[in-house]
Amino acid sequence: MAWLYLFLAGIFEVVWSTAMKESHGFTRLIPSLITAFFMLLSVVLLAIAMKTLPLGTSYTVWVGIGAIGAFILGVTMFGESLNPLRVIAVLLIFAGVILLKVATKE
Predict the structure, then answer these.
(1) Distance from C-alpha of 12 to C-alpha of 94, rounded to nearest angstrom
(2) How much is the pTM?
């Protein structure tokens, strides 16, 4: 269950970071409220996962899921640049997340 909580925490990190972008510096109410709600939910789920999983693994996987998700949404929703170096960087993050999952006995 800890891995499921951690995965959901990472997904919710993507939600709140995207909502934060849409809040335009917290000047728009609804995206600002979505940011706060999903930020809290993400951190609570991360904390629950950390009861079982190691700190380094939990935090790195959480950030990795958030980074990869934010990258994908940045490219698809916000027209951010997609070039070979950025793709390689994201693939390296993905590989790191997978390796941490494989290396963690839980």
Answers:
(1) 17
(2) 0.89
